[in-house]
Amino acid sequence: MKKRFKFIPVLAVAIMTVLLIAGCSNSGSQGGLSIGIVLPTKDEPRWVQDEARFNAALEDSEYTTEILFSQGSSAKEKENVETLISKGIDVLIIAPQDGPAAGSAVEAAKEEGITVISYDRLITDTEAVDYYVTFDSIAVGKEQGQYLIDNTEGTGVPLYLYAGASSDNNAFLFFEGAWSVLQPKIADGTFVIANSSEAEALKDKAELSRDEMGKILGQITTNWDPNEAKNKAQTNLTAASAELKGDVAILAPNDGTARSISDVFGSDGDVTSYKITGQDSEKASIQYIIDGKQSMTVFKDVRTLVTDAMNMAVTVLDGNTPETTGSYNNGSIDVPAKQTEVIVVDKENVKEKLIDSGYYEASEFTGLE
Fold it and tell me: Which GO CC terms are listed, alphabetically (predicted)?
């Protein structure tokens, strides 16, 4: 909470609370905004879902909020933060478009005494981050890699690697998790890396440095862009020899890129079959899983993540210290973190995990058994 509120007398606090409740609306108001939220883009279903969950989370709250989107621009992200600061927020929840670039934006917030909560993606290389609410990103990558191992037969299986944006710290964590389980199977010949000379050169190394991972990501990044993923997959298959086709395994970083990559591999007559990963449990990918065009997704229940973030924000607004379950080093400090578990979803358990749990309605899909 801002420093200017720390020593207000009890009576004044009571009066201010009554006024706040009387004027409360989820759209916020000039000078009376409690929580500012900045999300990366409206162009990905994942973040639109988050927006809806955030709005729902505060329906019965006395606190006000406003949600702004950066639309893939670090400059717009900084502008959004400045806008929210000018509206008097006490807590900033931000999923950075670019981890390092977001540093200057949140530093401006910290200078105003605002509590900064990094949401889903970690803001790096700055001390101006108070808390981090996240899914266990390394666990996501491990689940993706392990799924490919568990569902692949034989040896010499071509392995196509794809990753998120090099500007996103989570992309490194996802890849780190996947590499930790895939590397032994690459080293023993179960998998043959098909599309990264950098990964091939490091195939005998169990733990990679940030720089080494960066070199691999430089070759396999999709920038979280389905069109870029499609183009990269087409380029990879055009260059691939017959030995690198047939039955293949594909590490795709998220659902949006997985669908694009799946479409490319599925249309190549020399690809006999493929197993492909994903994450986020986007509605379109659930249909792909039902139809057999995507193998799995890692379900990250946004309802839980949003609840964790809003509970943390309200705890701060109430003058208390939020509960955390670990910490992440962002290059400058160890940021206290609240982690949320992840769940593997495939065709076998999709109904149980996503329909029976109330996350989606069965009527939203076709062919669901």
Answer: outer membrane-bounded periplasmic space
DSSP state of 367: S
Closest CA to 254 of 40, 37, 69, 36: 40
User: How many Cα atoms within 13 Å fall on the side-chain side of residue 357?
Assistant: 15
In a domain, 247, yes or no: yes
Give the range of the structural domain holding residue 231, as residue numbers without chain letter: 137-300+345-364
Q: How far is CA 222 from the centre of its chain?
A: 14
Q: For residue 304, count CB atoms less than 10 angstroms from its CB and return exposed for 0-12, middle for 13-18, buried for 19 or more.
A: middle
* 170 shares a domain with 97: no
What CATH number should be reported for the domain holding residue 24?
Answer: 3.40.50.2300
Using CA atoms, how far apart are residues 260 and 270, in angstroms rounded to an integer?
A: 18
Residues 82 and 220 in one domain: no
223 and 243 co-located in one domain: yes
On whether the CB atoms of residues 248 and 265 are closer than 8 A, the answer is yes
CA 355 – CA 369 distance, rounded (Å): 11
> Are 246 and 318 found together in one domain?
no
CA gyration radius, the chain: 22
d(CA 24, CA 284): 36
Cα(99)–Cα(169) distance, integer angstroms: 6
**Pair (199, 327) in one structural domain:** no
In-domain check, residue 71: yes
pLDDT (tens digit, 9 = 90+) per residue, 280-327?
Answer: 999 999 999 999 999 999 999 888 999 999 999 999 999 999 999 999
Cα end-to-end span (Å), the chain: 50
* pTM score: 0.78
Q: Which helix (H) or strand (E) holds 117?
A: strand 115-119
- Give the whole-angstrom CA distance, residue 285 versus residue 293: 9
**Three-state secondary structure readout of 192-215:** EECCCHHHHHCCCCCCCCHHHHHH
Residues 123 and 189 in one domain: no
Backbone angles phi, psi at 132, to 5 degrees: -135, 125
What secondary structure does DSSP assign to 27-69, as a single string? T--TT---EEEEES-SSSHHHHHHHHHHHHHTTT-S--EEEEE
